[in-house]
Amino acid sequence: MTKNIQLAMAPIAWTNDDMPELGKENTFEQTISEMALSGFTGTEIGNKYPRDPKVLHRFLDIRGLKVASAWFSAFLTTKPFEETAKEFIEHRDFLHAMGAKVIVVAEQGHSIQGMMDQPVFDAKPSFTDEEWDKLTDGLEKLGDLAHEKNMEIVYHHHMGTGVQTTEEIDRLMASTDPKKVQLLFDTGHLVFSGEDPVAIYNKYQDRIKHIHFKDIREVVVGEVKSTKMSFLNAVKSGAFTVPGDGMIDFKPIWEAIDASGYEGWIVVEAEQDPAKANPFEYAVKARTYINEVTGL
Predict the structure, then answer these.
(1) In terms of C-beta distances under 8 Å and separation of at least 24 residues, what long-range contacts does 204-207 make, across chains too?
(2) pTM given for the model
(3) Which residues neighbour 117 within 8 Å (Cβ) at sequence distance 6 or greater?
(4) What torsion do the CA atoms of 26, 27, 30, 34 make, to the nearest 10 degrees?
(5) Under a CB-based contact definition with an 8 Å cutoff, are residues 245 and 285 in contact?
(6) What's the whole-number average pLDDT of the chain?
(7) What local confidence, expressed as pLDDT, does residue 1 receive?
(8) What is the 3-state secondary structure (H, E, C) of 37-76?
(9) What do you get for the CA distance between the two ends of the chain, in Å?
């Protein structure tokens, strides 16, 4: 059995950063208390979390929680590098103070993931060669900045962005220095997009330094395609769910992870409408299923 894997829960199940109206009634303290109660030892950062490391440590330490990472929106393809770098350094220093080892980075230039009226499949952006150069050069520079604190950046391939498909992940990996740019492996986004998660994992296992476990409801994804739904409306309709509740068989995925000797965090991240999917119940469901599949 693989050692040194820790399980975290993302707060997006309780309160949604992109749609703050989802879960606005759920407090920060309820969120982290229910994470700990359901058997997780880590969290990512949500919009209700205190940004003062001393304050946040006080809330998390008493509940046995650590910070696994936090999302960073880069605009390397559309803004001057200096703007992204300035925000990145601030984000990096906060995560470093919280003891995190990796920084989740996703390019948001031309992204449609936050647009309610853009169909997530049909309106998906793609980068020009010049934009690819800006992205890969910029990511390597962010990787250098992360190394100043002995941290790594992990790139989050994501629905509705310019790095979503197998072909795009391949190009990103081939065009960046493996010492500077690592990969986040997200089961839900890969399956949603129509990619093969086990093939991606096996191909890039040496560069995968952070993992998101989320599941997909197959019927909802069919509706997303047929009705040309946006990413956010897909979330509201229940496209994502926790491991064990959707179409993904996590056994072969886990076998690949276990065989690779992966060390680090596996984060359950399943953004749903908490009014429809009680976050605590789903966290317990995820924790139970993960234990059954992985023994963790």
Answers:
(1) 204/169, 204/173, 205/256, 205/260, 205/262, 206/178, 207/173, 207/178, 207/181, 207/182, 207/183
(2) 0.98
(3) 230
(4) 50
(5) yes
(6) 97
(7) 47
(8) HCCCCEEECCCCCCCCHHHHHHHHHCCCCEEEECEEEECC
(9) 9
- Give the DSSP letter of residue 180: T
With a cut of 50, list the residues of the chain below it in pLDDT.
Answer: 1
Beta strand 152-156 with 181-186 is parallel
Taking alpha carbons only, the member of 256, 230, 277, 249 closest to residue 191 is 249
- Cβ atoms 62, 92 nearer than 8 A: no
Q: What is the CATH number of domain 5-294?
A: 3.20.20.150
Specify whether the CB–CB gap between 214 and 239 falls below 8 A.
Answer: no
> How much is the CA Rg of the chain, to the nearest whole Å?
18
The C-alpha torsion from 117 through 123 and 127 to 128, rounded to 10°, is -120
Cα–Cα dist 196/192, whole Å: 10
Tokens at 236, concatenated: 């509201």
Which pLDDT value is given to residue 285? 98
Helix spans in the chain (H): 28-37, 53-61, 81-97, 129-147, 166-174, 187-193, 197-204, 218-226, 231-236, 250-260, 279-294
Residue ranges of domains in the chain: 5-294
**What span, in angstroms and rounded, lies between the C-alpha atoms of 279 and 236?**
14
